[in-house]
Amino acid sequence: MNETPGALLPELLLLAGAVFGLLTGLFLPRRRQWIVAVVAALAMVGSIVAAALDLAREPQRVFDDSYAVDVPLGVVRIGVATGTLLVLALSVAPVRGHRRETEYYVLLLFGALGTIMMAGAADVLLLMVTYLLASIPLYTLAAFHQDARGTEAALKYFLNGALLGVLMLFGLTLLYGAGGATAYGELGKALPGASQPLVAVGLVLTCAGLAFKLGGVPAHFWVPDVAEGASAPVAAYVTTLPKIGAAVALLRLVTEALPGVRVDWSLLIAIIAAASMTLGNLAAFWQQSPTRLLAYSTISQIGYLLMAVAAALRSELATPALLYYLAAYLVTNLAAFAVVVALPRAQVLGDYAGLARRHRALAVVLLVSLLSLIGIPPLAGFVGKLGVFAAAMDAGLAWLVVLAALNTVASVFYYLRWLAPAFLDSRQDGEPDKLADSGSSPRITAYVAALLTVVLGPAGGLLYAVL
Q1: For residue 395, which phi and psi values (nearest 5 degrees)?
Q2: What pTM was computed for the model?
Q3: CA–CA separation, 378 and 364 (whole Å)
Q4: Are the C-beta atoms of 13 and 39 separated by less than 8 Å?
Q5: Rg (the chain; Cα; Å)
Q6: How far is CA 271 from the centre of its chain?
Q7: Does residue 429 have a pLDDT over 80?
Q8: CA–CA dist 227, 214 (Å, integer)
Q9: Closest Cα partner for 10 from 96, 120, 86?
């Protein structure tokens, strides 16, 4: 058995940070629980450094080939740790002095650990365990402040997750029964000769569970409710980071365990992609809450990135396009949510009237993030969409590319509904001030995420060559 604990150093650092942070918090007075945030930040920085160094090594399979350490996992490691670090910065002010402040930071670390390991899982048993590890901490975070909206959101989140998790477990059981193995490599050899209807049912049920983590149709119902009911930093975390691990997990499953089956899994994923981008864009048109708008935007973005998964075995561009798009979506979405966190009194889109006059830098961040979500050059979102469109076209999915292009044009209108009041000052004297900011931490986080969004665009060619 190829036990190589050193290959899991980024994951071990996150685990150590969570355990040490929890133990440290037990002995700290409430006013000093910020020390656990420092411990969590150091663990994430260490994980980023270890993951970056590991990218230079040859890909390998460890622990009886159940865990893949390769470039896709490396991108997820760096992306998730970086994203969690940004969410941690967004959370400092809202949870400072909370009686469960330590637990909040620990849950962030455990959620990040589960997300990363889900992306590296090369065995159906490990996939299911990491699915749970990436889900349970987030249920708790959604209800962290114990208010009515958060509790309702967490309950919906949990019930959806429990139902779809059971369906996923049943689907993985069917794949195991059809292939007689749990490792992806062994399933890849056995499933082409197994009962194809059994494989088809197992695949559909497995995709249902991963669609829940992705927030894609038809498992998307929880996304807007959690985004609106949970605190804004938690909403940023839930609508961004789990998607990265789930997308790579789905890519690894279909390319390693199902390459030779006669079931057209590519068409299934393409249909999910088409439904997600279309429903997400149509539903976003009517939203007045910025968090709900971003939630439906997330659903539509899932549709775009699934285009690369659908093209995975028929285009060499698919995997690098998916990895780049995930990185672009990560920083872009967190930049938009950072603006929401920085302006907690702005509850509807109209409350952002006069933003460009009151907070010019935040207005620029909002402009950059929303234009990147649309796919305007030269921002990261444009390069990401160009990559997945090219991969889908190369794979013969021209109909999906046309639909995605139409959806991209349609998305311009609801993003402009947010930008218009921000840059066209319509605020009247004497109206309540909705644009008071919440402190320096969210603003700095917004600037960092927006800067990464701008930098990733011109760097796209270099990153594609590396990926």
Answers
A1: -90, 5
A2: 0.95
A3: 15
A4: no
A5: 21
A6: 20
A7: no
A8: 14
A9: 120
Instruction: Look at phi and psi of residue 220 and say left if phi exceeds 0, alpha if psi is from -120 to 50, else beta.
Output: alpha
| Residue whose C-alpha is closest to residue 207's, from 246, 160, 176, 177 | 246
Average pLDDT of span 407-436: 81
Q: What is the DSSP letter of 183?
A: B
The model's pLDDT over 304-351, given as tens digits with 9 standing for 90+, comes to 999 999 999 899 999 999 999 999 999 999 999 999 999 988 899 988
Q: Which residues contact 197 (CB under 8 A, 6 or more apart)?
A: none
Q: Tell me the residue type at 291.
A: T
Backbone angles phi, psi at 437, to 5 degrees: -85, 165
Which H, E and C letters describe 412-439, residue by residue?
HHHHHHHHHHHHCCCCCCCCCCCCCCCC
* 464 CB-near residues (< 8 Å, 6+ apart): 320, 321, 324, 387
Q: Which two tokens stand for residue 165?
A: 């998790």
User: DSSP 3-state assignment of 141?
Assistant: helix
Convert the pLDDT of each residue in 9-57 to its tens digit. Answer: 999 999 999 999 999 988 888 788 889 999 999 999 999 999 999 988 8
Count how many Cα atoms sit within 13 Å of the Cα of residue 355 in the half-sphere of its side chain: 26
Q: Which residues pair with 121 in a beta bridge?
A: 67
Rounded Cα distance between 426 and 420, Å, is 10
* H/E segment holding residue 69: strand 67-69
- 123 DSSP β-pair partners: 183
pLDDT in tens, 50-83: 999 998 888 999 998 899 999 999 999 999 999 9
345 residue type, one letter:
R
Q: Residues 83, 334: contact at Cβ < 8 Å?
A: yes
The C-alpha atoms of residue 432 and residue 285 are separated, in whole angstroms, by 26
**Among residues 41, 225, 29, 37, which one has the least CA distance to residue 143?**
225
Report d(CA 309, CA 270) in Å as an integer. 8
Tell me how crowded residue 31 is: count the other CB atoms within 10 A of its CB.
Answer: 9
